[in-house]
From TrEMBL:
Organism: Campylobacter gracilis RM3268
Keyword vocabulary terms for this entry: Signal, Transport
Gene3D superfamilies for this protein: Periplasmic binding protein-like II (3.40.190.10)
Name of protein: ABC transporter, substrate-binding protein, family 3
Entry GO CC: extracellular region; outer membrane-bounded periplasmic space
Length: 286
C-alpha cells in the first residue's frame, strides 16, 4: 500500500509539473509570436518624426522671417519625413543648443539630430552617426581678418560656443588662450559685434556665411585642425534607424540631393566665394 501511495504521489507530481511546463511553454510561445515593435514602426505609429535642429545658426538651421524652420539641415529633415511618413510636413522640429544635442537623443526627446553635428571620437562614444552629408573644418574670424594664425590669439579673448568642436579643440590644444564661452550662437556672435572678444572660432562653413552678412569681419584662419564631416546622429545602439538613414543617404546620391539642398539654402548666402563641392558630400562618400 505504501509503495502504491508513493507511486501515485510521484505520478501526480510529474503530472502537475508537466502541466506547469506546458503552461510556461504556451506563455513563451504567445510572447514569441508577438514580435517587438521596431523603432521605425513606432515613428510611423506616432505619425511624426522628431528631429533636432538649430534655431539660431543660419544658413544651416534657423527660424526665418515667417517663423518657420529653415536651412540646410531643415531641408534634409523634411526629406526624411517624406521618405519615412510620405509627407515632408510630418516632422516635429526640436530646437537644441550645441551642448545638449547628445542628451536629447539619450533621453528620447528626439529621434534624429541634424543640428550641424560634427563627427568626433568623443561623440561616437555617446551617439551613433549615420553616413556624412557635409564637410567642415574649424575657422577663426576677426575684425578685418587680422588674426591669421593661432599664435596671435595668445593673451587675447576667443569667443566660442559650449560643446562645439571649437570648444573641444581649443580647450585641449591651447590652454594659453582665454576662452569666453556661450550656450547660444546668437550670444557668441553678439559678443563679437559688441567687442567682447578679439576673435570667434566656429565651423568655417558658418563663419563664411556670417562674415558675408557682417562686412567688417573676415575669416582670417579658413581651416584649422582636421577636415571633419557632419552626419545625422541617433541614440546609441539604434542600429535600425541608423541603417535606414545610411540607405537613404546612399539613395539620394542618384539625384544629387545635397547639391540641390546647397543650391536652395547655402548658395544664396555664399555666392561665388565657396563651391558646392567644397561643402557637399553625396552618398556618404568623401
Amino acid at each position: 500500500m505504501k509503495k502504491t501511495l508513493s507511486t501515485l504521489f510521484i505520478l501526480g507530481a510529474l503530472f502537475f509539473a508537466g502541466c506547469n511546463d506546458e503552461g510556461k511553454g504556451s506563455s513563451n510561445s504567445a510572447q514569441g509570436s508577438a514580435a517587438p515593435q521596431s523603432y521605425i514602426d513606432g515613428i510611423k505609429k506616432r505619425g511624426v518624426v522628431r528631429i533636432a535642429v538649430f534655431g539660431d545658426k543660419p544658413p544651416f538651421g534657423y527660424i526665418d522671417e515667417t517663423g518657420k524652420n529653415a536651412g540646410y539641415d531643415v531641408y534634409f529633415a523634411k526629406r526624411i519625413a517624406k521618405e519615412l511618413l510620405g509627407d515632408e510636413s510630418k516632422v516635429q522640429f526640436v530646437l537644441v543648443e550645441a551642448a545638449n544635442r547628445a542628451e536629447f537623443l539619450a533621453s528620447d526627446k528626439v529621434d534624429i539630430t541634424l543640428a550641424n553635428f560634427t563627427v568626433t571620437p568623443e561623440r561616437k562614444e555617446v551617439v551613433d552617426f549615420a553616413l556624412p552629408y557635409m564637410k567642415v573644418a574649424l575657422g577663426v574670424a576677426s575684425k578685418d581678418g587680422d588674426i591669421t594664425d593661432v599664435s596671435q590669439l595668445k593673451d587675447k579673448t576667443l569667443l566660442i560656443n559650449k560643446g562645439t568642436t571649437a570648444d573641444l579643440y581649443f580647450t585641449k590644444n591651447h590652454p594659453e588662450i582665454k576662452l569666453l564661452k556661450f550656450d547660444q550662437n546668437t550670444e557668441t556672435f553678439g559678443a563679437m559685434l559688441d567687442g567682447r572678444g578679439d576673435a570667434i572660432a566656429h565651423d568655417n562653413t558658418l563663419l563664411f556665411a556670417w562674415t558675408k552678412s557682417n562686412p567688417g569681419f573676415k575669416v582670417g584662419i579658413r581651416s584649422l585642425g582636421d577636415q571633419d564631416v557632419i552626419a545625422p546622429a541617433v541614440k546609441k545602439g539604434n542600429d535600425e534607424l541608423r541603417k535606414w538613414l545610411d540607405d537613404l543617404i546612399v539613395k539620394l546620391a542618384d539625384e544629387k540631393f545635397f547639391h540641390a539642398d546647397y543650391d536652395a539654402t547655402l548658395a544664396p548666402v555664399y555666392g561665388d566665394d565657396i563651391k558646392a563641392d567644397d561643402v557637399v558630400i553625396e552618398g556618404g562618400k568623401l
